[in-house]
Please model this.
Amino acid sequence: MMISTKGRYALRILLDIASAVPTTEYISLGDVALRQEISMKYLEAIVATLSRGGLVESKRGKAGGYRLARPAETITVADVICSAEGGISPVACPECDGQSCSRAGNCLTVDLWRQLDTMIERYLTAVTLQDLLDSRDLSVLFQNI
Amino acid sequence: MMISTKGRYALRILLDIASAVPTTEYISLGDVALRQEISMKYLEAIVATLSRGGLVESKRGKAGGYRLARPAETITVADVICSAEGGISPVACPECDGQSCSRAGNCLTVDLWRQLDTMIERYLTAVTLQDLLDSRDLSVLFQNI
DNA sequence: CACTTATCCTATTATGTCAATAGGAATTTA
DNA sequence: TAAATTCCTATTGACATAATAGGATAAGTG
Model:
């Protein structure tokens, strides 16, 4: 789980779309496919989930396409990954939720994974699409978390 | 990739072994299996990689088993995950290494994933088996990174 | 020397998710 | 009507993970 091709592609796709000069313009997946060298069909599948997640708006038919549903400053990388992959947590931790946690030995690790989750989520929430578009130095954000 | 069952189990196994009262004692996988409720055979597979990674020492035959190869203070969670899963990076990033990075659009994301890797690795390197055994408050370590 | 308890070694299977593709239906514009 | 595009449902292939199986080797014990 965590960050697979789907998530990485989703981010690239959104950055591509967000680069449109009037941000109100609709970008077709055909154009994105050419620029990003990802197959149309796969793009469709990924964008569908982004659309369901409310990150992009679509317009069908000729001269249709996709555009961001919100300003790039308000869309975080966490939003993108969550939407594309249905979650961020790097640890699918069955021990955490429920009964099996009764064993004392396990619970030594629960806090570790929780803390890790928190950390990753904070970081990815701190970075927006606009930050990436501006090629901002992320190590600054990294310090401030 | 990232942290799968194998990695989580590996950590639990090592903590179990590390809990032995004289730390020089050899703990059999049979005992670990009972306490951790993991099948012997699966344990064997996981411990084999930990052994190859130099984290545990074994003793064969009757009254044999496993013990830590180094003090628990010197074994980090990063060591364990690396050994069990062959790496930590949550992003298998083919864009990062090599030719396809020529496209400018992609490179907006490379720094993000690098930074994330660094962050996770630092955190998991900051936590040792002993920290977990002591049930130390990890949020303190978390702040100091 | 047997016997028992272990680790070790090499396969194999089953499951599931990911990555990618395929074909066509619905919609909008010109 | 025609072209371009999003939408919808299904399917496939490949691969990694999770787990199991059977036996070989080693070491202690009576």
